[in-house]
Amino acid sequence: MPDGGNSTPAAPLREDEEVLHRFHADRAAYLRDNAWMAAIAMAGGMLVLWLMGNPHVWTGAVGGLAAIGLRGWYMASEELAARWDLTDRRLLGPGGRVVRLAEIVKLRTLASTVQVVTAAGDKHLLKYQGDRDETLRRLRAAVARAGGQAE
């Protein structure tokens, strides 16, 4: 595993710091995002074979589905174990990631993922959120309470 097997926040809470919310990866969001990736990979594989003049264009769909299906199966345990803790001061993530709320300058979404961008340019992904809009709302509210201004 890229983060050394640590899928939950390892940073200790500071004195008087409290966890406001825990963000867990959602299995339905994981499956939905992987289904979209498979569809795109299938179409892409077929397009490449068609452009090359291959008479067996359909094999691109099989290859795309197999690639994303295998990847999804292999990565599921790691991705679904990921957890982020939102405290009144920081966002604590897997692999020792620690982001002070006041340093967050941008929050964006793509599919079921929320991207957190810091003033230093660091980027963190809260992937496979069951309700990414609610995740975004909670993060924006916490950043505002901490005195930051995230776009």
Automatic annotation (TrEMBL):
The keyword Membrane applies. The chain crosses the membrane at residues 34-51, 57-74. The keyword Transmembrane applies. Keywords: Membrane, Transmembrane, Transmembrane helix. This is Uncharacterized protein.
